[in-house]
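Quick one, T. Sequence first:
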Amino acid sequence: SILFLPNLNFLGPFLSFELIIPKNGLYASTTDAKGKSYSDDELKHGIFTYFLAQGLLFGDKDRDKKIEKWELKEFLKKAEEYARKKGYDDQRPQIKGKIHTVIEMPDVTR
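Structure tokens:
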């Protein structure tokens, strides 16, 4: 199971993500409990959403037909770097969970 969460920082310390993530699941959120999320006119999306979509589309860096958590994490790191360049030091995307493969791509070479 994969769970993509919007900015839930308003719940702060009252929510433990471990309570809502399935045992073999993964979650990604726009920022940590103390941060904010931002949209960007240049990207025409939220910063998190844009880089998450880029990771899901182009994240298979090792070309094993899987997008793995570490690969998606690299794109979310780019989101954080982009946000900082724009002056948003408090957007810190998160990805956590116990699974390693986020998406397995189908073989379409028949």
